[in-house]
Amino acid sequence: MEGEYGDIYHIIDIMIKKNEVYCTEIIDQGIDGEGIAKVNNMTIFISGAIKGEIVEILIVKVLSSFAYGKLLRVIKGSKNREKVDCSSYQKCGGCSLRHMKYKVTLSLKKDIVENCFYKILHREVKIEDCIGMDQPIGYRNKLIFPLGKNKEGKNTIGVYAKRSHTIIETDRCYLQNKKNEEIARFIFNFLQRENIQAYDEKNRNGIVRHIIIRNGYKTGDVMIILVTKDEKLIKENDLVNEVIVHYPEVKTIVKNVNKDNTNVILGKENIILYGNGYIYDKLGEFQFKISPFSFYQVNPIQTELLYNKAIEFAELTGKEIVFDLYCGIGTIGIFASKYAKKVYGIEIVEQAIKDAKENANMNAISNIEFYVGKVENLLPMLLKENKADVVFVDPPRKGLDENTIKTLLELESRKIVYISCNPATLARDLLMLTQKYKIKEIQPIDMFPFTSHVECVAVLEVKKTIEK
Ligand SMILES: C[S@@+](CC[C@H](N)C(=O)[O-])C[C@H]1O[C@@H](n2cnc3c(N)ncnc32)[C@H](O)[C@@H]1O
Known about the structure:
The chain is of the alpha/beta class. It folds into three domains: 2-76, CATH 2.40.50.140; 142-283, CATH 2.40.50.1070; 299-467, Rossmann fold (3-Layer(aba) Sandwich). It contains eleven helices and 23 strands. The chain has a seven-stranded mixed sheet with strand order 19-18-17-20-21-23-22, sandwiched between helices. A hairpin with a 2-residue loop joins strand 15 (279-283) and strand 16. It is globular, with a radius of gyration of 24 Å. Bound molecules: S-adenosylmethionine. S-adenosylmethionine is lined by residues 295-297, 326-328, 331-332, 346-349, 352, 374-376, 394-396.
């Protein structure tokens, strides 16, 4: 490389330093999809670079055993590289894989899961091919746009830059449903016209912190949540009237008050400005009520696939007692209820359990019961009275706590179907569970195209049944 690229490049026999430029080959892909290079035995992570490429990089941060490089130029590109369609991609923290062909991102996600399992279980575990989307665009049913002040002190709306709270103004975010984005911009224009101030994190003044839009993919219903610093939002009635005239699909508008100096988006108080405070959506043959605080999967097309896979893995015969742990608004339990004798759901968010109970009634399901509380506390109590043949778990990113793992090990249920949005904690938990259960299958599903996130459904079978 020396002659061709001149002597501005530092070749491998010197220590790398911040602000220096190197020419290097990308030898691997990291857990967040970033390219990995080795220079002078130092591992360098480079966002936007693809395995096999020769790239020019600027070293931006050096730590004791690794460094971060910024991609300056692709000297020899990969055939897997895709022209980036988003003007904010370099700065935005939303996507990290838009520079790759979609099919390649799917095999990368399979590799990420495989590597996690190898690193934690120290053996190869078969991972199925990641199931992707036919149209991986505009798939999100939940938009969250932060508001703030730009350098000139003017209201701004957009997306957060990578690892920061700097707001980048975007023309179009290709993860978002187009209508949701249009409604968010309509609201922002109203705020501008009426001189209503965006909340400024630094000075803690201003009023509107976030605009959140959720939509029912099948029903077309739209919910707007305006997160404000105080209860008082001037001209809120005018805003509501203008929105519902322009967008009749808006079924409810909620003001969520968050007075705290925090990164947590939602405050504890919801004030309904219009409608009932909830919307509906359909998944499979079932209808679901969704409230502002309730978790609902963000990619409805892949969610149906995910739930159907989970039900298929459970191999229910109609005779089983089933537990749906971390049940949210009861979606998985309701899917399972058709094929089970009885289902119990546990969830920590009170409003989600209220929705879950209404969802069961609305769908005329009588063999399901929901409990509000922590899985780690409630599960052992419920198991004193009831056995469990099949357990579905769908915890948050941090995975299962020790108590729940202990309970599942003692339980020895016929099957555990584990749905996870974090392969690292999935692998950690499955390692523990393999004391009593055998891993049967792990199916990655692309719920979050062009981001490095990957969802998995894993099925475990109790060892004693298999040995019989
Ligand atoms: C990944 S979501 C899954 C929800 C649901 N299964 C679905 O598919 O929509 C995880 C859920 O776990 C709930 N949760 C978090 N910690 C919990 C705990 N310790 N006990 C019970 N539920 C919890 C969250 O409120 C959230 O609804």
